[in-house]
Amino acid sequence: MTRHTGLPTVEDVHAALAALHADAQTTRAPTVLALAQRVGLANTTFRRNFPEIVAQLKSSSAPPSDSRPANGGGNPADGLAQENARLRHHNRELSEYLALATAEIQRLSLEAHGLRGELAGLRNVSTIRPRRPR
């Protein structure tokens, strides 16, 4: 299998990751999707070609295990704040995936419409419109 020549190098990806870390807010870790978009690749293409970096991002952004003591002696407000931050991060990530899926559906719809037009033109098919009542 030959490698596509348009792929960024590992150094380019690490530079983009460093830029994302510099741009990120303190509560938000960079996502794989954001990094893939930063280097100009689709999410699946990025995951397929840079699995080590994806694993590194997953391990660094994994939610920490429950750090409260077993006896429940932790501050409930801290636990709620951590849960809220985790849910906000998850919500942002899902919003990014939704935006990506929406754009892909729009692109595919336009492409399908164009292909149907080309097919009709190649077949010399004319459409019959219903008669208007007199």
Q: Would you write up a description of this structure?
A:
- This protein is mainly alpha-helical and about 130 residues long.
- The protein has helices at about 10-25, 30-40, 45-50, 50-60, 75-125.
- It has 2 domains: about 1-60; about 85-125.
- It is elongated.
How much is the radius of gyration in Å? Answer: 24 Å
Q: What global shape is seen?
A: elongated
Contiguous helical run count: 5
- How do the SSEs run, as a string of H and E? HHHHH
Number of strands: 0
Ranges where pLDDT stays below 50 over 5 or more residues in a row are: 66-71
State the helicity in percent bands.
Answer: 55-70%
Structure class: mainly alpha
- End-to-end CA span: 65 Å
- Total tally of structural domains: 2
Q: What about the largest sheet?
A: none
Summarize model confidence as the mean pLDDT.
82
Approximately what portion of the residues adopt beta-strand conformation?
Answer: under 5%
Structural topology:
Elements: H1 10-23, H2 32-39, H3 43-49, H4 51-61, H5 76-123
Helix pairs in contact: 1-2, 2-3
Concise description?
This protein is mainly α.
Fill in the keyword field for this structure.
single chain; 134 residues; mainly alpha; 5 helices; 0% strand
